[in-house]
Amino acid sequence: MHAFKEMKIYKLIINPFAEEDLVNSKQYFDEQREGLGNEFVSEVKKTAKRIEQNPNQFPKQNAQIHKANVDRFPFSIFFYIKDLIINVFAVFHTSRNPTTIKQRYKSTD
User: Fold this and answer.
1) In the chain, how long is the greatest CA-to-CA distance?
2) Has residue 1 got a pLDDT over 80?
3) pTM score
4) Is the pLDDT of residue 63 over 60?
5) Is 87 part of a structural domain of the chain?
6) What is the mean pLDDT of residues 41-45?
7) How far apart are the first and last CA of the chain?
8) What CATH code is carried by the domain that includes residue 97?
9) Would residue 90 count as lying in a domain?
10) Is residue 69 included in any domain, yes or no?
11) What is the domain count for the chain?
12) In whole numbers, what is the pLDDT of the chain averaged over residues?
């Protein structure tokens, strides 16, 4: 008989800060090239799905904050896990000041 590891079922929540990041970035990419914004959102959704399936595969930036890089675009998704809830609180361009991420985390926790 094989023992199965109990799989945790996580729920991913995108908070309003991250939602605004996504909308603003999509708009920026649409201004660069028609359809590029949708491609960006599609890549973010793929990354979010990977986060939801196994959030601990992504490295921690500090004791609480995880970072998942988005394919094809220089963006990262920042999130923390509390119980079985994954709270996405930022979708940031990789060149943004990391202090901003810490400040935002403090305002969402």
Assistant:
1) 57
2) no
3) 0.90
4) yes
5) yes
6) 98
7) 42
8) 3.30.2310.20
9) yes
10) yes
11) 1
12) 92
